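Q: How would the structure tokens look for this protein?
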Amino acid sequence: MNLEALRKFCGGLPGAIRDIKWGADEVYSVGAKMFAVFWIDKDRAKTVSFKAGPERFLELTDLSGIVPAPYLARAHWVQVQSVKALSDADARALVTHSHALVAAKLPTKIRAALVDASHGKSAPRSKR
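A: Here is the predicted structure in token form.
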């Protein structure tokens, strides 16, 4: 798995916003809710954490190189500590799933704007 390519992929998901939290973590959020966190050291990603959901959490943490994410495991987040643990395609699919899990919990209006944006439509303007 290429962590640098995965960072770019996260930034391209509908409504994704990137910022730095806790000094050294690059966080990707949708609707102000995190869906992926990269630990950055010397401008390079060293690990990635994302929401796996209860149905995949145990399966993923049984793989070598993937552990329950510190501080977030109770919310079914995993941390990939070894780039050999997942293929690029699997990592993209899992991050896309994390994005979908987080987006599904957003308010209806925000979810609708994300759907419109992903289909190339402009978001509806608010009434004054």
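DSSP finds four helices and six strands in the chain.

Residues 16 and 30 are 5 Å apart (CA to CA).

Upvote if useful.
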